[in-house]
Backbone:
């Protein structure tokens, strides 16, 4: 076959391989899902556009679509958190939603509890500060921000839990496709921040999960 | 002569030409200062290292040195603000001091009142918030920050006066000589921010002065 | 809801939140506009393509479209300047028009008087110089330029009012999406220039407004 | 004073502020250390060159120097781990040593247990694989690598604990000061990696500490 | 004519000129192929999309399409290796397939024997190691990888044959169109690697062929 | 020998090879000069620092030093223009002097007449305009500028002769070593400009010479 | 009107303003052409796609389309060279044709004689060398090349006339939209080369014309 | 110890580990050499400055210094080629010498025969063409070039052996530390070129050796 699945990964790293949708045909995704579900109760694919799901649903029985997250998955009904702890998920602007939801849904499908706080960017700092107590109680934080990407710096100065920063490609001009928030997050004057790739909500969720299971 | 002084600039733009120190010999600076003082009561040069001043002071009578700002100037004793209004000058970290002082001293030499607030970076947001009222009363703000450069975004969300953002080259690694805070400031999700070149405290002061005289 | 409106912003910063169109559905924009008009007499959205307005007009009563500016807004009939002073708006080429109009219409909707001077780029410097007197009377200047972006430097050397420089993505090849005029403006040998993001006519207008209200 | 210490940070984030050496005079560092030791039993400064320590030791009683880490600190004799868990610290090449030691010593001074594995880069993969079992038992891993920075990807595929990747500026030519390993780490095909700034051993240790205390 | 064919190239460099498809009309490609087949038994064009082939096949008799490789060629039936030695072709992920196949098919059409190993990326290093013996027997290796591009470094540490590294544009965010794996490969800590342009499977095959004929 | 002199170049291109000083020992430069003077009446080396000349003058009889241009040359006494026409040489700021003089002295040593106009940058456009008539009479123009590099655009709009633009590395921050003026000049909205490398006064002079001999 | 035509430009610089097509509606182009033809016998617009011309021809009487050059113009029948001298136009590959033709047609419409040599790239250096004599007789050369852009360096070493180098965006991967050949041309080890913007065939022709009229 | 030597590498890859000098103390280099000579008859270190060798020679018996190559090595007297075939080594300019010699000496120390051709850059193409026959007889070519780096493209079009291209950091301005020739080589229109890192003469020699032993 065209793919060399890594079924041992679940054993080795604690998470199943997840399908990266872009560049794969509907047929290929369906086939990989069929193979994967033999080994795993949760099977998921990211970056699935609505029109891809529209075709995929007829080929893969029991498939669900999380539209805001662009994730398509087969998962048990009434999926419940399997691990203790909560991931706090913050996003700076409404436009960062799809990346933030990619992180949220990935985390939930992997068995973690998530608390969402959307649209709390630094240009109106009172919005963030009004949630200060809730944020301080999270066990790990994922902070999603585009444009100038300043939110993780402010958050990391408020809490004593690890912060995972996700730059997004939301912005224009001198954002250079997310380079601006990426550099912002890497240069944060607040220590305790780990950065993932631009728009990589998925990777942030996996890292948060690994932290919670530590 | 090697320089083509622009004495009309004072008439046209309201500020005298200022000497840019780097790349000029002590002899050249002294000579330009001698010519300039015939036309202006305040004569100043920026980016003057201590060892340059050490030699310059014997050649230029009445010369003063503002060490933290690396500015050398001839100015009337008891220089007083000549314009109404106050420039609020904020800096994020102690390392940004010399750029912030370049802005402060330039503004003072040009006849403006300055209020300084150093070391109020976003990683400890309570420091900034404790000065919130003072900041809100400024007529124009200059915000100096290196590393991730997030301070102007937060400040601009708190006030209704214009904010001039000065990125500094303070930082390392993915700061790329100040590129990171420069991009942060240009992409700010808070509107009402004008950005100047990396480390350009001088230019920020001139712009603030032009705003106050509007 | 998906958005966390910042109604206090008008009180804090003097300007209402404005909707950034790209990436939002017609439905979302209509909904946010409905909420906003409860708090503000002027409601506006930027970067609205004609086909988006074509649908939006049926959902939002009293909506107007400023085509050249790509702005859609609800505004009182016979909107008059509410603040003293005039913003001089210069653009270098005809292709910079939509960014320049974004600045102009934003400023007018926010209550400021605007004087437009289009297509006065530096390759034919006499065009600019013929307006020299008019330009010198403006209280603040917004200068929009793509390609090499040299216009703000020349303008700032002619006047004693603050200059806001807006680089545009107009150009090709080594323009790198507006990077060239952005760097030009940041490195200007004329002091007194504040730069905003590439194509950010909106931000320039807000900054100009804040300067006029100083 | 020139610095605005953030003593509450220990309470808020669980770690004391740490002095960043570059750009500060010996006198300034000594003074900040004197103030800090009133609030904290451990006082530390990073990026301290041997010649700086040589002068500093006479001004700050009880000061120790960790040469490989370029850290200078006042710390209790017989400092013992105060938290459960172990940080596994891997470095790819001998040249990455000072960054890796900055991480190791910071972690130890903050009360964490560290296991060091130096010089296990991917060009001789058997070196890494021979420690596979030891690595799998770590609670969190810090992986330091310059040049092409591939080590974190391989490590993250072997373990189920969180991996903190530290790119270093070790390299030449197309390394562009550490940009190459930074991009490598951000684009890792293995999920579960959080990246910090180039050469930021300190930040990696703080993040690892926050993970262990989760 | 619009093209200046270099028929001597076969004599000079041992390989015929190959048609680069993008930017050429179907008519132009057909015409160049007609001219080329007068001089060469194998005629090939790269980067041919399926819809281009769909039209081309009616104009060029005996034309074949290698879909995964996006190559269209006229070649003898039962094409057999003409040179001794084998090229080992490894790819890191399923998404790198089309670049890897461009290399494989080019090599086969030029008369070389190829062994394919797909989807053996470093995040699951056991996949690569399980083929260790086969890899060590290859005479030259082409290693194709996108995202972080770490595979060639690991491979080059395992073998004593030359390694040709092909970065691909597969990835997103800080991959910057393949810049990330390109830098990774250039900075490899393992010596003995020659790098070709991003996505240049064709060039890698030609280089491998030249090595085998040495 | 270590150098492979290209004596035919004078015949082919009309100019002798010129020695590039950096990275060569005094001994090597002296030796190359000795060889060159056998074939040419003018022998020159660029980028020669004063201390290099100080040693070189004792080894090379008849050697002259043009300090501002950092050029060292053997040339006939009373060197006169050998070609008709005049090269107009403009520079934007005093700091661009050494690059502008490199162009001027190279042109003069190659037999061309030069008219110098220093320090006529765009921030004080009246300085340039006051020389308008003189500039319009030049046969070819070399325009040297650092910082934002806008001068060539303005000049090219004023004249009908070819303009050679030389960006300099003079500037700081977002100048990125001369990248800013380089991009400015390449993107000029005025046509008729040819750009040379950053600080390449030498190359500009050669190109101007070739134009005059056309 | 929306455009501020610069009719004096013809008088000042010797060439009429030329319309830049992209971003203009058919209606706008037609209108500007109507105005321009009142002042000039030749009216031209560049970057006109076939479908734009298809509409434009009905609105602008006497309009011609030069397809390979993507230029649309009104020009006298039997346009003859008006100036002495010949422009040699070389291109490296067939894909560079449209840029090279933009230069050729612009030059011809402006009254210059052009000799075309297509597809003489450096990978088959004998093609170039076979035209050596013809090239040496040109008065000025325009050399168009994409990919690695090496052709101008070789050409400039063969001739004593000025060389105008035009990098094109033809290429892929590490070409970065033409950055690679642009840098190549700027760094040429052969002096006497002036570089224009990526794909700027138009600007090269204007510069060549200005050189020929010198 | 601080280093984790990879003695198996010789067995695995056919070449011993080689010491990278920069960042290591004389003491460290001497110690590693002592250990290495127990396993290998040839021990070598690259990037050794003369002053480092001056100290090293007293600590390491039998140590030789290859000044132009900046290599220090212990090698048998009368080292003879151990492998069939010849590596042709070409360099474009005299300034590229140290990189070219690094390649040459490495290859010779590893047992290969080398033919050197220095200073045959493309600006005087006849120099290269005069060696055409010799070049065509080489089994593999290493081509070293800085500035615009065009030499490998021309060479690869002349021969049917593999070409290894080495960009150097020789150049200035828009060379950006060797980025320009690196991009040139990666984008070569001639196939059959493998590129190594900027200034990586060592890596080129190892690759050439691996090709010769294929
Ligand atoms: N610190 C500074 N940053 C930016 N521009 C400056 C600074 N100091 C002086 N200048 C500008 O540099 C110009 C003088 O340059 P120069 O003629 O080289 O001395 C003045 O017109 C100032 O506008
Ligand atoms: N897939 C490819 N990647 C890189 N170069 C190619 C590819 N296919 C063809 N070429 C080269 O492109 C040249 C042909 O370009 P053209 O004359 O535009 O068809 C040939 O000499 C090949 O060396
Ligand atoms: N200032 C300069 N800028 C650019 N190129 C130069 C300069 N001076 C000399 N050259 C060129 O460098 C070449 C000599 O290099 P080299 O053989 O290293 O001395 C000559 O052919 C000149 O074309
Ligand atoms: N193909 C082209 N490349 C570069 N500049 C051009 C081109 N075509 C027209 N121009 C320039 O663009 C200007 C017209 O721009 P616009 O006013 O937007 O039509 C003219 O003054 C020309 O100098
Ligand atoms: Mg919002
Ligand atoms: Mg602080
Ligand atoms: Mg125009
Ligand atoms: Mg090692
Ligand atoms: Mg896979
Ligand atoms: Mg000046
Ligand atoms: Mg061709
Ligand atoms: Mg030479």
Residues:
């Amino acid at each position: 076959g065209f793919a060399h699945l890594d079924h041992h990964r679940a054993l080795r790293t604690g998470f199943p391989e997840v399908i990266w949708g872009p560049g794969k045909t509907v047929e290929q995704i369906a086939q990989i899902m069929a193979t994967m579900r033999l080994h795993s109760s949760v099977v998921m694919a990211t970056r699935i556009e609505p029109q891809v799901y529209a075709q995929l649903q007829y080929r893969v029985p029991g498939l669900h679509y999380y539209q805001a997250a662009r994730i398509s998955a087969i998962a048990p009904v009434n999926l419940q958190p399997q691990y203790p702890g909560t991931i706090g998920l913050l996003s700076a602007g409404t436009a960062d939603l799809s990346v933030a939801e990619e992180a949220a849904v990935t985390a939930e499908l992997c068995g973690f509890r998530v608390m969402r706080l959307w649209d709390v960017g630094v240009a109106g700092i009172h919005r963030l500060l009004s949630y200060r107590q809730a944020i301080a109680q999270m066990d790990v934080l994922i902070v999603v921000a585009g444009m100038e990407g300043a939110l993780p710096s402010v958050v990391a100065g408020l809490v004593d839990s690890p912060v995972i920063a996700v730059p997004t490609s939301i912005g224009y001009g001198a954002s250079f496709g997310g380079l601006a928030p990426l550099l912002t997050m890497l240069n944060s004057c607040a220590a305790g921040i780990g950065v993932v790739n631009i728009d990589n909500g998925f990777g942030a969720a996996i890292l948060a999960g690994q932290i919670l299971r530590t």
About this structure: Chains F and A do not touch (no CB pair under 8 Å). The pocket of magnesium ion (ligand 10) is lined by residues B 3; F 93-94, 119 (CB under 6 Å). The two ends of chain F are 36 Å apart (CA to CA). Chain F has nine helices and nine strands.
